[in-house]
Amino acid sequence: MLIEHSTAATLTIDLGAIAQNWRFLGTRAGSSSPPKAGPTAASTSTTAACAAVVKADAYGLGVAEVGPALYQAGCRDFFVALVDEGIQLRTLIGPDATVYVLHGPQPSAEIECAQHALVPVLNSPDQFQRWSNLAKMRGERLPAALQVDTGMRRLGFDPGDFEALSSESFAAARLSGIEPILLMSHLVSAEDPADPINRIQLEQFEIARKSWPGLRCSLANSSGIFLGPAWHFDLLRPGAALYGVAPVLNQHNPMRPVIRLQAPIIQIRTIAPGDRVGYNHTWRASRPTRVATLSVGYADGYLRSLSNRAMVRFMGQTAPLIGRVSMDTITVDVTDMPAHQLTPGAQFDLIDSAHDINQVATEAGTNAYEILTSLGPRYRRRYLAA
Ligand SMILES: *Cc1c(COP(=O)(O)O)cnc(C)c1O
């Protein structure tokens, strides 16, 4: 439990921005125009429905809040990775929503999957067989998504196995007790429109879906939505972009920023030229330097690779992080900032709309997905209502 005047850093999560990002992505369906305008000036053409990927606790932002916000915004197709995540999500949203489990069930988890009305993504002949066995045992048809591997070599039927399954086709799948309700695959490099793998995967997917006429199809993750309408099919499957991650490499980010991370000053001191700061003394002062110590560290998922690289902000001004990121603290050079406002308790912005997760990811040498999913449990979390 956090006391009222804790030094804990504050993570603010804008549920309204997530809902707006979801609506915006939905309006991209069938559209090939470049993403200029952003969520506030969206077109109205809709051909594909828009799902929401909320695996890994909604990318670290809290599925207990994000799930209901998206449901209220109108989302009726949700994807999680694990059966456990699906069971939790089912308690948070209405029974008219479909919850897909990307990993499919582990052996003997099929019963739980069915009991909680989860739709497994069947990724292999083995998973297909086990789901079919359960259906026969229960004497009912159980819905499932089928995933075909078009290049990721991670999850999904090998094209050969899929062809074998398809040659038996719909009717046979029904006889085996399985009611396929979605055919899907996952893109390898969709954030890079110039990568030829995007078209190769599209072609592979087109081949796979020929054997299943009429079956609902889904290929595009967040970035895939921006490859163009050919990749859209019937159901868009964004995760990252809902949470503010830029969907296209080196291009204007049309998504609304979703999180703000603030950490308070705990202590301020002035050090002399030649003094060194932090573990292993990796930063050395070349002038009299005022150092502010802030309450956030790698235990909070503020990555250690941001050492000597991140920029933080205070009242619109920018200051560099100096020295190593510690477990619970970082140190910032505030020499050039207005001294009288820099007092213990004053809040610095580490991630905000002026310096978002995408920029912090660049500083950390990783992607924005890892910044989000690393956000720790120690923050004071504030949710802005949708
Ligand atoms: C995680 C995931 C997504 C969402 O991808 P984003 O890049 O976050 O939009 C979609 N489909 C599958 C199969 C996934 O694993």
Name some characteristics of this structure.
single chain, 386 residues, alpha/beta, TIM Barrel, Lyase, Ornithine Decarboxylase, Chain A, domain 1, 8-stranded mixed sheet, 7-stranded parallel sheet, 11 helices, 22% strand, binds pyridoxal-5'-phosphate
Mean pLDDT across every amino acid position: 93
CATH C-level name of the largest domain = Alpha Beta
Number of domains: 2
Through-space gap between termini: 26 Å
Radius of gyration, whole Å: 24 Å
- Secondary-structure element string: EHEEHHEHEHEHEHEHEHEEEEEEEEEHHE
Q: Which CATH architecture of the largest domain?
A: Alpha-Beta Barrel
Number of helices: 11
What proportion strand?
15-25%
The coarse silhouette is elongated
CATH-defined fold name of the largest domain: TIM Barrel
Hetero ligands: pyridoxal-5'-phosphate
**What are the low-pLDDT stretches, counting only 5+ consecutive residues below 50?**
40-46
In short:
The protein is of the alpha/beta class and 386 residues long. Helix content is 28%, strand content 22%.
Q: Mind explaining what this structure looks like?
A:
- Strand 7, helix 7 and strand 8 form a beta-alpha-beta unit.
- The strands form four sheets. Strands 1, 11, 14, 15, 16, 17, 18 and 19 form an eight-stranded mixed beta sheet that branches.
- About 2% of the residues have low confidence.
- The relative contact order is 0.14.
- With 386 residues, this protein is α/β, with parallel strands linked by helices.
- The longest helix is centred in the middle third of the chain and has 17 residues.
- Bound molecules: pyridoxal-5'-phosphate.
- Pyridoxal-5'-phosphate (PLP) binds next to helix 9.
